[in-house]
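Narrative of activities, Objective 1.

The group set out to show that a structural description can be obtained from nothing but a protein's sequence at a throughput compatible with the screening campaign. Below is one input-output pair from the validation batch, recorded exactly as produced.
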Amino acid sequence: MLPRTSWLAVSPDSDFSIHNLPFGIFSAKTKSPGIGVAIGEWIIDLAAVNNLGFFDEFNLDTSIFRKDSLNDFIASGKKVTAGIRLILQKLLTDIESPLKEFAWHILVKQEDAVMHMPVKVGDYTDFYSSEEHATAVGRLYRPDNPLLPNWKHMPVAYHGRASSIVVSGTPVYRPQGQFNSGQLENPVFGPTQYLDFELELGFVVGKNAKMGKPVSVSEAEDYIFGAVLFNDWSARDIQRWEYQPLGPFTSKNFASSISPWIVTLEALEPFRIAGPDQLPEPLPYLRTSGLKNFDINLSASIKPQEFDEIIITETNARHLYWNIGQQTAHHTITGCNLNIGDILATGTISATGPKGAGCLLELTQGNKKILNLAPGLSRTFLEDGDELILRGFAEKNSMRVGFGEVRGIIKPSVGL
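Output recorded for this entry:
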């Protein structure tokens, strides 16, 4: 695919190029929540474009663009959603575009808009798909055998809490709970001392899967609409005390943050890449071939109070051992159904190297190593007032497709 240029001025380093056109839910001073598409520093109001007749071939009522979530729009199918994206690309690159004269009517500056949760999430599953992350964390507790026997045979995951998924910018209150302090036999209760982030992607389900009918790995991507940045906040001391025998619970259920724009699979198509070799070979229902991973640069930054932000993590989604097709196939192999708006998160994405760790648990080796951010400024885990920022983008042949960012500032615990 060759680079294209919009008649709207778009910075070359914008995440929201003509090659992207992600979908989200926005509101503005004179506009109630509805569906928008990001281009440069602007948002295109899809309801306004539809009213002008540019989407007539799909015979859509404008009310579908005035919903407070993308769920119904996504349910119209990829023929519609991908079709609308292609129409917008043509209208925005055609010098004689009939849309130009209506620019004042259809465009809203991003800085003048409020972004909302893009989808209503019914269910959320968090995978554990980065070998680098699983190995680094496993080594903290099992130095001689970091990966458990099942890890290279299936995409390991747990079911998370959908109701506490929030959009970027929503404050995160330090959770309280039980944890084992030092070598005490009995737990203590209080605010977590080991508050962490997890740098992930979240894939948004775009098609219902029927209960009792597994989705094959070959058709799995037909069930995925697109992806967001995902921060699965974690209370590591609470997690360490509670995770055996059933896995995370209150250490993860207090908040997960997502970016407001959903980048479609169509936009990510040019950035496909082969994943790592999988040895031993997976069972037949998990076998894939071809370019199933995505070359997406990812970073995490901390902005302490009264300081500039500091990049602490730089990694890439290309490293994921298990791809979204395999995750979807394994999720449904039992006959578990999927619903539009569900999120399948990758789990922490890490890479090798000094900044490759996708969470503080790795960066500080389980609180054993101090992370020096600046002269006189260090961290092992997050402190109240810290803001954590995730960013991600793909770039190739002068084409850039990005996710924007997902931010969350840590607030003190709310007492009982």
